[in-house]
Amino acid sequence: MYPQERRKWLVEHARQNGRVSVTEASARLGVVPETIRRDLDQLAARALLRRVHGGAIPAGFDQLGDAPLDTRDASAVEQKELIALRAIDELPADGGTILLDAGSSVGRLAAHLPADSRFVVFTNSAPIAALTGARTSCEVRLVGGRLRGTTAATVGNTGEFGRLRVDVAFMGTNALSAEHGLSTPDVDEAATKTAMIGAAHTVVVLADSRKIGAESTVRFAMLDDIDVLVTDTGIPQGQLELIRNKDLKVVCA
After folding, report:
1. Contact by Cβ (8 Å): 236, 18
2. Which CATH architecture is the domain 69-252 placed in?
3. pLDDT confidence tier of residue 78, bands split at 50, 70 and 90
4. How many whole angstroms separate alpha carbon 6 and alpha carbon 113?
């Protein structure tokens, strides 16, 4: 196989599966791992792929990482709106208890809660607490802690969330893959997310397709820990098949 053909295969494989690993590509293409690493470096230099540990992901993956909330909220707006509207279907009966994670996708869900809804809402997001309290009839409880300016989320509150039991938790994530699970850049925020997931009977994750197949620094849950993934139709087919094999309900908005 010529180098051009090999690199074309690497790009297409990453787009179809959400990522490409050096080990797998080396075995499939019959070349040494160092050759694949050089190919990936060249493709990354041309902005066709993005290098990550052990391989690469599509260049279209959300590279905002731990960027300020306003910056992230302005990205993938159409997809996040569709995801939020579809996630409404996962709400419990009115009067039930829900947990809203900090983040732009969950924030859009909060903006679409029916005005006359009467859920008991727990959240670690000051903006989501203010929004929900102002526009709905819900009882809103902001769980305190140290406020992270970047995400407007409170952290250092695992004990508080550990004492809760809610019907449904709506969670965001920076990255989600079948291998690494759900992950985020910040250690403290990851600990809070883990506690929030542990507090819920049902866990619904809102993640646009740019995050599927990618991995961030700190894992806060495995796919076995969640019940529903609401994403958009851009999800890589290979990752969709892997995720569904985990006995996880996947909804493409």
Report:
1. yes
2. 3-Layer(aba) Sandwich (3.40)
3. very high
4. 48
For residue 170, the cross-strand partners are: 100, 204
Residue type, 214: A
Q: Do the domains 69-252 and 3-58 match in fold?
A: no
Domain extent listing, the chain:
3-58, 69-252
Q: Which residue has the tokens 């053909």?
A: 5
The per-residue pLDDT for 62 is 56
pLDDT digits (tens, 9 = 90+) for 35-51: 999 999 999 999 899 88
Q: Could you tell me which of 65, 120, 53, 124 has the C-alpha nearest to residue 93?
A: 120
Q: Are 171 and 226 in contact (CB under 8 A)?
A: yes
Provide the residue count of the chain: 253
pLDDT tens string 87-100: 999 999 999 999 99
Choosing among 3.10.20.30, 1.20.1640.10, 1.10.10.10, 3.40.50.300, the CATH entry for 3-58 is 1.10.10.10
pLDDT 10s digits, 102-111: 989 999 999 9
